[in-house]
Write a structure and sequence with these properties.
This protein is an alpha/beta fold. It has 20 helices and 26 strands. The chain folds into 3 domains: 3-244, Glutamine Phosphoribosylpyrophosphate, subunit 1, domain 1, CATH 3.60.20; 254-452, Glucose-6-phosphate isomerase like protein, domain 1 (Rossmann fold, 3-Layer(aba) Sandwich), CATH 3.40.50; 458-603, Glucose-6-phosphate isomerase like protein, domain 1 (Rossmann fold, 3-Layer(aba) Sandwich), CATH 3.40.50.10490. The structure holds 2-deoxy-2-amino glucitol-6-phosphate.
């Protein structure tokens, strides 16, 4: 949530910051702002501009300004404390020294600090927790007595609880940016005589591929000549430097109208990348370098607990079926936000596996810390290379699907399911699965990208069908077994993008209550591909039809019967049931995409959402 970008170098900062903010807009898009210091002005002053709405509004606001400063900070906001107003937009400034600050996260003890600062005579002009931190830094700043910007930031952060990634500038030190993080992502791109600090690599890779990661409680003071990294207690630390892997073309639209469309359609290529070099058909062994050092612990584990949120949770739920069915490994799956607060039992032999596209989701990270503190081996199934989860787990497997920019997760979902399918074979083959079964499943896995391509060719048909039903305000999504989580995912995609109320559930659950919702013509999407419970799903379809529900079925090619029981059928190629979620989900993604367009919504930036949920 919230995009952060800061620049110090020799180029004019203003346009660079705006360009960076555009790349980060998917992180939050209710308001935006920039602050620039021109060191050549004497005395130096902070030039500030903010606008409610998209970064393009900020850009308009900046038209005609002649800011020549070569350092500054920029922010795109996802509101937590305080409404969406220009005053509440970042950067925030203090009322004395001349400090400007941008922040991602939540300062939890802001109310106490605000009272303290008001007693000291400070006047607040916003409703935000961030202004409190800005004011606190200003209050502590005392350059004459050795408390410069770096020291004031360190001192202020020792007083706050909560999560933060911040960048701070001060007109008294016009050649310094101080940045810090705890619980929210922040990296520092290292260029040639310039530095770009950002919440995501997307704002950096146009300028440099070399970046330094910060750990929690790290503070970095950056000048044009170099940087110094320390803790909030001013103990020097050596930062880790890494090479960013994304290419610029991966984060551009490349001829598509929307990122979501691009990401749906690049799933075959993305999954080929996920699978590349990891399948070994000969003896059925999957090669997963990231976890091989822990193979023994995994094989001998007594149970696996999967933790995640949102779409990633749906992939984790699929893994619960796969690990138990294919590897006979006891597995539970839980919302990370629940796991972390419910005093979970983590006994000997428990492996806790986090699934996350961003690797930064606050609830999942906190649950991982809880698991680690209780002695669990922690694993990550993560997309973003070098993300906090990737760094803080004992081991893990990367998705390798490339950057996902659309707020609605699509290729990350299929990538997660592909990795978790491989993990189930990795475990299964080492526990009880015959080489032959393992090889057969690997062969099928390798064919998934081609089969997705066949489904994508149906997009015009799916579009036309979606447009026929898009006026309905209530939809049901139903599935059984490994496709029950796909029903949840189909409902999530539809509601987050088109704002249609949609519920997903196990098909059998419907008659325990939700069947009361069915009215004449209400769309009910059934995942009805061939599998162990196919006949049962047909019964649930009949129950829905006889109450006036309008059935849309996702079925297996060649299924002649299904046409006589469902009004609309979307066919997927044949595929073994355990691997079918990577196919059954695709028509549902396409439906959600076209439903949002038909209802006139911004597909890539749905209302109230942000890509990466870095606050609790
Ligand atoms: C779904 O489309 C959302 N983007 C959301 O549910 C997301 O999957 C969830 O917030 C978890 O994010 P993560 O994978 O980055 O941890």
């Amino acid at each position: 949530m919230c995009g952060i970008v800061a620049y110090i170098g020799t180029r004019p900062a203003r346009s660079l910051l705006v360009e960076g903010l555009k790349r980060l807009e998917y992180r939050g898009y209710d308001s935006a702002g920039v602050a620039v210091i021109d060191a050549k002005n004497s005395p130096a002053k902070i030039q500030l501009a903010k606008a409610v709405g998209r970064v393009s509004n900020l850009e308009k606001r900046l038209e005609g300004t002649t800011w020549n400063g070569t350092m500054g900070i920029g922010h795109t906001r996802w509101a937590t404390h305080g409404g969406v107003t220009e005053a509440n937009a970042h950067p925030h400034t203090d009322d004395g020294v001349g400090i400007a600050l941008i922040h991602n996260g939540i300062i939890e003890n802001y109310a106490v600090l605000r009272t303290y600062l008001e007693q000291k005579g400070h006047t607040f002009v916003t409703d935000t927790d961030t202004e409190v931190l800005t004011m606190l830094i200003g209050e502590l700043y005392d350059a004459a007595n050795g408390v410069d910007l770096e020291a004031a930031v360190q001192a202020a952060l020792r007083e706050v609880t909560g999560a933060y990634a911040i960048c701070v500038i001060c007109k008294e030190e016009p050649d310094v940016i101080v940045a810090a993080r705890k619980g929210s992502p922040l990296i520092v791109g290292i260029g040639n005589g310039e530095y770009i600090v950002a919440s995501d690599p997307q704002a950096i890779i146009a300028h440099t591929a070399q970046a330094m990661t910060l750990d929690d409680y790290n503070v970095v003071k950056i000048t044009r000549d170099g940087f110094r990294t320390s803790t909030i207690d001013n103990v020097e630390v050596t930062p880790q430097v890494l090479q960013l892997e994304s290419e610029l073309d991966e984060i551009d639209l490349g001829g598509y109208e929307h990122y979501m469309q691009k990401e749906i359609f690049e799933q075959p290529a993305a999954l080929r990348n996920t699978l590349r070099g990891r399948l070994d058909m000969k003896d059925g062994r999957v090669v997963l370098g990231g976890v091989s050092a822990f193979a023994k612990d995994l094989v001998r584990a007594r149970r696996i607990i999967m933790i995640a949120q949102g779409t990633a949770l749906h992939s984790a739920m699929i893994a619960e079926y796969l690990f138990e069915d294919l590897a006979r490994m006891p597995t539970e799956c839980e919302y990370a936000s629940e796991f972390r607060y419910r005093n979970p039992i983590v006994d000997d032999g428990t492996v806790v596996m986090a699934v996350s596209q961003s690797g930064e989701t606050a609830d999942t990270l906190a649950a991982l810390h809880e698991a680690r503190d209780r002695g669990a081996l922690t694993l990550g199934v993560v997309n973003v290379v070098g993300s906090t989860m990737a760094r803080e787990t004992d081991a893990g497997v990367y998705l390798r699907v490339g950057p996902e920019i659309g707020v609605a997760s699509t290729k990350a979902f299929t990538g997660q399911v592909a990795v978790l399918s491989m993990l189930s074979l990795f475990l299964g083959r080492r526990r009880l699965m015959s080489p032959q079964t393992a090889s057969e499943l690997q062969t099928e896995l390798a064919m998934i990208p081609d089969k997705i391509e066949q489904i994508l060719a149906l997009a015009p048909e799916i579009k036309a069908m979606t447009e026929r039903y898009v006026q309905h305000d209530n939809w049901l999504f139903l599935g059984r077994g490994v496709n029950y989580p796909v029903a949840l995912e189909g409902a999530l995609k539809l509601k987050e993008l088109s704002y249609i109320h949609a519920e997903g559930m196990p098909a059998a659950e419907m008659k325990h209550g939700p069947i009361a919702l069915i009215t004449e013509g209400m769309p009910a999407v059934f995942i009805a591909n061939k599998g162990a419970q196919y006949e049962k799903v047909l019964s649930n379809i009949a129950e829905t039809r006889s109450r006036g529900g309008h059935v849309i079925a996702v079925a297996t090619e060649g299924d002649k019967h299904i046409r006589s029981v469902a009004e609309d059928v979307l066919f997927i190629p044949e595929c073994p049931e355990p691997l079918s979620p990577m196919l059954t989900v695709v028509p549902l993604q396409i439906m959600a995409y076209y439903a949002a367009l038909a209802r006139g919504h911004d597909v890539d930036k749905p209302r109230n959402l942000a890509k990466s949920v870095t606050v609790e």
